[in-house]
């Protein structure tokens, strides 16, 4: 089994890079876990109260459950991954039952910042894109896919995303074995990571 952690600031392209890496790998050999699925359950709060939460601070993530799930997969056990709604800003009732596979990819802004989680990774990758590029991508994505308006995205960026990035995400780059520059689509780096995975699998 090979467990890979992929971090990087919001909008750097983590999800996209993961999709590109696994595109040519056998589907029955890879599981992808997104840190976003492990946002704390906030169903006890009103929608208004939820919208005030700092979703870029490590305390907003249920790391205990995420770490327990990665350990379970390592022990060849099946897990039930929570489903998170960005529109409702809380966990939904359903879960996704997921069996262990040969390659486990864990991606999210803070996955290299948590020491207990980090030590479970055989390979640690940080995806880098400049902050202006990330903000532009995030604006477009959040307005299209996550039900946010321009004002909300910019307010969150200034009050939570940017300060938390400087405090927790950017410093976690030092733990990476590999940094992928992703201001532009980086097919060479993606191919290299895929080759490394295939080599480790045989
Ligand atoms: N190298 C790139 N160049 C231009 N746009 C990109 C690039 N990588 C990702 N994107 C786009 O930016 C947005 C955010 O990418 P995503 O992979 O969701 O980032 P993350 O998971 O790191 O938040 C998406 O709309 C995606 O299509
Ligand atoms: N209800 C929420 C929860 C999280 N976010 C933002 O998501 C970002 C992390 O996800 P990426 O796919 O962009 O890595 C993080 O920066 C949170 O601010 C949100 O907007 N709403």
TrEMBL record:
Residues 3-188 form the Phosphoribulokinase/uridine kinase domain. SUPFAM superfamilies: P-loop containing nucleoside triphosphate hydrolases (SSF52540). Its EC number is 2.7.1.48. NCBIfam families: PRK05480.1, udk. PANTHER family: URIDINE KINASE. Belongs to the uridine kinase family. This is Uridine kinase. The lineage of its organism: Bacteria, Pseudomonadati, Bacteroidota, Flavobacteriia, Flavobacteriales.
